UniProtKB/TrEMBL annotation:
Listed GO MF terms: DNA binding; transposase activity
Origin species: Chroococcidiopsis cubana SAG 39.79
Classification of source organism: Bacteria, Bacillati, Cyanobacteriota, Cyanophyceae, Chroococcidiopsidales
InterPro entries: Transposase_17 (IPR002686), Transposase_17_sf (IPR036515)
Any matching Pfam family: Y1_Tnp
Protein name listed in UniProt: Transposase IS200-like domain-containing protein
UniProt-listed SMART domains: Y1_Tnp
Length: 109
C-alpha cells in the first residue's frame, strides 16, 4: 500500500501489485481484513452507524491503471483527494439526505 486517502463514502488507494496477483482476491481480502480491524478497534462507532448488520463494504469496486507518470505524482493525486470544503458539505447536506446504516456491502463478496 503506497498511499491511502478517503472521504465519507469511498477510499482512494494507491498500491503496487505483481502481475500474478488476482485483483479481485486482493480487494476482497482487503475488505475482509479491514472490516474485522475496524469493527474490533471502533466497535461503538460501527454499531452506531451499521448496528449489528454483517455488512460493511459495498461488494463493488473500481480499479484503474495508469502509465506515463511517476509514483510520486500518483501519491500526490491521492493526497489531494481531500474531503469537500465546509461550504460544499453544507450545500450537499441541505440538498439530499445522508444515509448511513446499511450503506455497505458484504465484506466477503
Amino acid at each position: 500500500m503506497l498511499e491511502v486517502n478517503g472521504e465519507e463514502d469511498h477510499l482512494h488507494l494507491l498500491f503496487g501489485f505483481y502481475p500474478q496477483m488476482q485483483l479481485s482476491k486482493f480487494v476482497n481480502n482487503l475488505k475482509t481484513v479491514s472490516s474485522i480491524y475496524i469493527r474490533k478497534e471502533f466497535p461503538e462507532q460501527v454499531k452506531r452507524f451499521y448496528r449489528d448488520k454483517p455488512i460493511f463494504w459495498h461488494s463493488t469496486y473500481f480499479i484503474a491503471t495508469c502509465g506515463g507518470i511517476t509514483v510520486e505524482q500518483l501519491k500526490q493525486y491521492v493526497q489531494q483527494q481531500d474531503s469537500p470544503t465546509d461550504d460544499e458539505v453544507m450545500e450537499r447536506d441541505s440538498s439530499r439526505p445522508r444515509r448511513r446504516s446499511g450503506r455497505g456491502g458484504d465484506s466477503h463478496s
